[in-house]
Amino acid sequence: MTTRRYDPDRRDRIIDACLDLVAEVGVAGVSHRKVAARADVPLGSMTYHFAGMDELLREAFGRFARTVSDGFERRMREATDLDGARAAVVAIITEDLFGTQRDLVLTHELYTLAAREPAYRALTNAWMARSRAALERHFDPATARLLDALIEGLTIHRALDTEAPLPGTVTEAVRRVTTPR
């Protein structure tokens, strides 16, 4: 008779392994077998914890989006005035989002899934809603929506452009969007 191994972190390890694999090989290269091997769990654990690959990917990307949103909210919560809020937005763009190649790839893999699959679009919409709510601590809703789009766009440009942005470009863009006319 075999004894069951007590492993309360198994589900979390599977999710973490899935995210690591997506960052390395993309969603198309992820399989139950590869995730199980990376997480060091029996292949049967995959079907025990997740109904299928789609559920695992939704859980993994949901965790990733929440982690990024938590950092975003923390930055905005620490700002105490308009200048601090502007500085927080600049830091989100220049330091936090896509701070690693892993985060860049995971974000773009999620964007690609969301472009095709409504279930993943729900994840990105929730992510954007949290971002805008954090921005609305300091900015009106219309400005928060513009800032959210600016953050996404500038972050993507910074990550993918072959030339480094000019110093002050991000700061100037944030100032322009947040200055009343």
Automatic annotation (TrEMBL):
PROSITE patterns associated with the record: HTH_TETR_2
Domain HTH tetR-type: 8-68
DNA-binding region: 31-50
Gene3D superfamilies reported in the protein's UniProt record: Tetracycline Repressor, domain 2
Key word Transcription regulation present: yes
An annotated Gene Ontology molecular function: DNA binding
Alphabetic keyword roster: DNA-binding, Transcription, Transcription regulation
Keyword Protease attached: no
Pfam families per record: TetR_C_31 (PF17940), TetR_N (PF00440)
Name of protein: TetR family transcriptional regulator
Protein source organism: Promicromonospora citrea
